[in-house]
Design goal:
By secondary structure, the protein is of the alpha/beta class. The chain has a domain of 172 residues: Rossmann fold. It has 12 helices and 15 strands. The strands form 3 sheets. Strands 2-1-4-5-6-7 form a 6-stranded antiparallel sheet. Helix 5 packs across helix 6 and helix 6 packs across helix 8. The longest helix is centred in the middle third of the chain and has 32 residues. The chain starts with a strand and ends with a strand. The mean pLDDT is 94.
Length: 354
């Protein structure tokens, strides 16, 4: 999947522009604060119609402006647009100019995977970081997963609210929905994890990691069957009431990453954790490419500067092997591995010069 053009209006510090994107991609070069990451963020926004970095929509808009507008037009001329209006706080999402009834209806029309400087948190951070990553990836790969996940989260929120009120009777009607949707979520995560370890191990080997690595899903295996939920929920009811939250379900599971048989989050060096996170992003791209039969674009934000020369060269070679459209940022030309062979765009004070 390739972007042919990008329209930005009132996005952060970027000057309004209509930019033609080269099919192979490009390297955005400029000092910190010049707008490189904002441009990358604009390219990634129509994937989930939210900021790559978790910023709120009002933070995406130019300070004091009326809102912002972004349109990514694919190489096959399909245009995916988003307009956020500051005065109402509402977001309009379109595909080829047609308003979508909900953001979820537009998901999958534009696919890109982003490498961000903060990605090592996927390795050293808590389980919630990895669950969010899993849910994002699987929601884009399988529309049915997103539907089940939303139902599960809604039922979980209602059940937790009843537990906080000390009202188990009001919680009971949500147990069935929780079981059905939760089993689907847990099953899909386990199914993906069972086949993902080999791919992750292969990516790390290409990036130069010599030690044995492992990836496995940790959670109650019985919960892939809705019939197992009533007993588990009943056994946890007293604890749920005392703490005002549900202690059974995939919202408490984890994706365990190991290095030489030990937790990577605690024994891995900074370089190893960063490399492991990059390998997860490459695995994410392959997951989406297989599921959607189209190769997502890659958006790489200032990642090379954090790697030593050997890891830089290995990553650049791996990105070329993966193929597809690639957009990278760097503060200086010297931070870009020569192996990338991308055209360079200069970004300064929000203005982009191709």
């Amino acid at each position: 999947m390739q972007a042919a053009s990008l329209v930005v209006r009132s996005v952060r510090n970027l000057a309004d522009a209509v930019l033609d994107i080269p099919p192979p991609g490009m390297a955005l070069v400029g000092p910190n604060g010049s707008g490189k990451t904002s441009l990358l963020e604009a390219l990634g926004y129509p994937v989930l119609f939210r900021s790559l970095r978790g910023a709120r929509d009002r933070e995406m808009a130019r300070h004091g402006g009326p809102g912002f507008h972004i349109t990514v037009t694919r190489a096959d001329s399909i245009a995916i647009g988003a307009t956020w209006t500051a005065s109402t706080g509402r977001k309009r999402v379109t595909v080829d100019g047609v308003d979508q009834r909900a953001v979820t209806a537009a998901l999958g029309h534009w696919l890109a995977v982003a490498f961000l400087p903060g990605d090592p948190v996927l390795v050293y951070g808590g389980a919630a970081e990895r669950r969010r990553w899993l849910d994002r990836m699987l929601s884009l790969a399988r529309p049915a997963y997103l539907s089940g996940l939303l139902r599960y989260r809604a039922a979980l929120a209602q059940r937790n609210a009843a537990m906080r009120r000390g009202d188990p009777r009001s919680a009971e009607p949500f147990d069935g929905i929780l079981a059905e949707a939760g089993a689907a979520v847990a099953s899909a995560r386990r199914e993906w994890s069972a086949t993902a370890e080999a791919g992750w191990r292969d990516e790390l080997a290409h990036l130069g990691e010599p030690l044995a690595v492992g990836l496995r899903y940790r959670g109650d295996e019985a919960l892939v069957d809705p019939a197992a939920w009533p007993e588990r929920l009943a056994g946890s009811r007293t604890r749920d009431l005392s703490r005002g939250q549900t202690h059974v379900g995939p919202h408490r599971d984890d994706l365990v990453l190991t290095l030489d048989g030990r937790p990577l989050r605690s024994v891995g060096s900074t370089g190893q954790q960063r490399t492991a996170a990059i390998a997860l992003r490459l695995l994410e791209r392959e997951t989406l490419a297989t599921a959607r039969q189209v190769r997502p674009a890659l958006l790489v934000d200032d990642v090379f500067a954090e790697l030593d020369g050997t890891r830089q060269a290995r990553l650049a070679a791996r990105l070329r092997e993966h193929g597809g459209q690639l957009v990278v940022t760097a503060p200086r030309v010297e931070d870009l591995p020569r192996e990338l062979e991308l055209v360079r765009w200069d970004v300064r004070e929000g203005k982009v010069t191709a």
